[in-house]
Write a structure and sequence with these properties.
13 helices, 354 residues, 2 domains, binds S-adenosyl-L-homocysteine, 5-stranded antiparallel β-sheet, Rossmann fold, 8-stranded mixed β-sheet
């Protein structure tokens, strides 16, 4: 039993069942008992490991993709280099190292980070020493200028709502109490319409998810892209129209019951990239494996392998496989590239785009 479980039960007794989104937000970001606010979640000693923590190649290739797109757009300066949810700052550190030799890139950039956890902000400050990053509380504070942005495993942490269709009606899934324990239930009142238009024809028994918390991010990004150009690379696990119950808890690198230990396990949901792209006309979409391969990860991996032997070589080869292989992260993880409609297509995506 976690302290947060007690807090949430008290709240449910007082106010009634809460939405899955409210539950997720409390579990991840409760100021004193939330997952991200109380523990270092990443790496071997944490609960999960992310692509930039697996290998420097991930950040290097993201950096080169951004820099090439910046050059293709005429090297606009000043511009914003931004990251949403930078974790330990590893991805941004690799991006900055890989772009050091691109003339004018560092001189023209303003480095902006968006991070909710004060503990992780401190880690980012240490990792990115010497680069003078600025943190913004709200994405609306992104400067009004060309925007080059990355977000890896950020959107999967935003709270989702879940709905179930029964007898033709949609009801929201809620977290309430059963015999004193946290338990899933359904709202007594149906929602007036389908949770989103694309789900209107879904059959009885369907479970669907929406993520309204993602909208202000995409709106702020596309507004800057439309006005000034740039590129946003959003990497996450999920699909083009996610369906079904994808809420998942991870603890000690293994799946766990999302209601068992609120605040101690990481909670995420698949990202629905179709909803995220919001019909944006310059949306490019591919798998992480295809993206990294198109950007030249095989050549980069071979080059790095030349200096390695023994266990270090073995783990480098394993990291390459882990990032790109379809059986590992290569096809479950997707890359959404949002660019300005009149810009050259960003590198890494097939010429057709999505
Ligand atoms: N991008 C990093 C970390 C991914 S974990 C990596 O790839 O390793 C998710 C990150 O997003 C963490 O830094 C977490 O604290 C941050 N985060 C989650 N929800 C957030 C929110 N609502 N606002 C700002 N940051 C958030």
């Amino acid at each position: 039993m976690t302290a947060l479980a007690e807090t949430l039960k008290r709240r449910i007794r007082a106010d009634g069942p809460m939405t899955v989104a409210a539950y997720m937000a409390e579990c991840l970001m409760h100021p004193t008992q939330g997952y991200y606010t109380t523990r270092p979640p990443f790496g071997a000693e944490g609960d999960f490991i992310t692509a930039p923590e697996i290998s420097q190649m991930f950040g290097e290739l993201m950096g080169l993709c951004l820099a090439q797109s910046w050059l293709d757009q005429g090297a606009p300066a000043p511009f914003t280099l931004a990251e949403l949810g930078p974790g330990r700052g590893t991805l941004m550190a690799d991006i900055l190292r890989a772009t050091r030799a691109v003339p004018g890139f560092h001189a023209g950039m303003r480095l902006i980070l968006h991070e909710a956890s004060p503990a992780l902000r401190d880690v980012q400050k240490a990792t990115l020493q010497g680069y003078a990053p600025e943190w913004i509380e709200d994405v609306s504070a992104l400067p009004d200028q060309p925007l080059f942005l990355v977000a890896n495993e950020f959107f999967d942490a935003l709270p989702i709502h879940q709905y179930v269709r029964l007898g033709g009606l949609w009801r929201e899934r809620l977290v309430g109490l059963q015999g004193g324990d946290l338990a899933f239930g359904l709202s007594p009142d149906p929602t007036p319409a389908a949770p989103a238009p694309q789900f209107a024809a879904d059959p009885d028994g369907s479970v669907v998810e929406t993520c309204p918390a993602a909208r202000p991010y995409v709106a702020a990004i596309t507004q800057r892209l439309a006005r000034h150009g740039g590129l946003a690379l959003i990497v996450d696990y999920g699909g083009w129209r996610s369906k079904g119950d994808t809420l998942q808890a991870l603890k000690d690198h293994a799946f766990a019951d999302p209601l068992a230990e609120p605040g101690r396990a990481d909670l995420t949901a698949h990202v629905d990239f179709e909803a995220l792209a919001l019909g944006w006309p310059a949306a490019h979409y591919t798998s992480q494996g295809a993206f990294l391969t198109a950007l030249g990860i095989d050549a980069r991996a071979a080059r790095l392998a030349q200096g390695l032997s023994g266990a270090a070589l073995h783990s480098h080869l394993a990291a390459h496989r882990r990032l790109t292989d379809a059986a590992e992260m290569g096809s479950l993880f997707k890359v959404l590239g949002l660019s300005a409609p009149d810009c050259p297509p960003p590198p890494g995506f097939s010429p057709k785009g999505s």
